Amino acid sequence: MKGIMLDCSRNGVMKTETIERYAGIMAKMGYDTLMLYTEETYEVDNEPFFGYMRGRYTKEELKRLDGILAGYGVELVPCIQTLAHLKCMFRWDEYQDIRDCDDILLIDEERTYQLLERMFSTLRQCVSTTKIHVGMDEAHNVGLGKYLERHGYEDRFQLICRHLNKVCELAARYGFEPMIWSDMFCKLALNTADYYQGGSINTEWLKEKVQLPENVSFVYWDYYTTDRQRYTNMIELNRAFGRKVIFAGGAWTWKGFAPDNEFSMNATKEALQACREGGVEDWFLTAWGDDGDECSKFAVLPALMYAAEIDRGTEDMSIIKEHFREIVGADFDTFMLLDRLNIDRGNTGSFCKYLLYVDVFMGFEEPRHSGREYGGYYAQLAEVLHNAEGKGEYAYLFDSYEALCRALVVKSELGRKTRTCYRENDTDGLKKLAEEDYVQAIEAVRAFHRACRKMWMTEKKPHGFDVQDIRLGGLMQRLESCKERLEEYLRGESASIPELEEELLQVKVKRPWRYISTCNVISD
Hints:
The protein is α/β, with parallel strands linked by helices.
């Protein structure tokens, strides 16, 4: 298996025609498997609230996709969740009785397994594959909520293994061979909170402690390092469970708006070498969409091309770029320009997202970039993107990123300029900002919103863009509100602007919008 996993659960559910287009490209690159990661964005028989208003795939859509992808030589593999990561499902009262805690299903509850069986039964009607990814990752507090209240404390390793056996039994009943993310099993077996800490497992102790199903494969996932030795160590750790090991790497689409092809390529090269040396033949790359699915999955086509070529033993970049142009119909280096929106690429933060959303009155300083000016950088990058050749059919994508750059030309420095003028009592400077810069910023964000919406509607179902409407619309209104506050201050209607009186603290950027956009409570 050489595959790609597309996240369709973080608001962005790709249109079926987009998936067809993607599958055609990846097949030419040499991939044979496409996983759709759907937490609850697929139809399940007799579960009307499952994926309600989330753009879920219908059975008819999945059946059609399965047949079309088969024509490309690509196997459509469901990638679902059967333990945790079901937060959106739990917003409905229908499922509260089977919620352990957080986003985790209640183990040993009859209704839980009724739901799971309906998942397998429905998917069996939709896809021809025997493979299925059943998730089970990051269930950190499993057994510590409603389960604890009802049954008391139970060894959580045994608890999760018992659940795994039930899930695998249901999968087999419907002709599926399951695979799981391995992090929970590694962490519980080693009694550690750090999946990547590594270590060795006593296999005899493991056999005595738990009974793992025979029909399950372990997926070791790692997107974060260029250290080949860590990959090697983790492969050996996963082998200790005595089941087939599959590797999952990352094509970074979850840092916000911009991709990180460069880091994806560097990490994948070391990972695939470790896989070859460790005898791991099956692998896939994940394209997640954390915090709103703001980055186009097409933005990481260079990383996908590179990984496929590296797997075949090709490291000559001129050959890789030539193949990219032949297959994608666009220029490799032009696509790589998209990485540059994040000045700190190679870091898992999202700098352009921080610059866009950090509040002009109540923000914070990113310590690595304190006091630096970025307007000129983004003005230049906007022109580079505008004039770049070799965009092929992806001009709409580049238009969106160019519009983001033009918004950042003004917005990236607006907070710093406002605070400086205010604290220096520069009323002329504040007047100019209110009359010019704030107006320009609002209009530039509005233009980015239009371009972003076009990109979204080209590739994805409309469901989920409401969040971008709320975020970008909220940003425009916030800028308008701050502009009005400045004007009131300049007219003498307010004695001060309290937020600008406070000293800025330095805080390392976190990716989620709710942390960047405000220091106040925006959601529980």
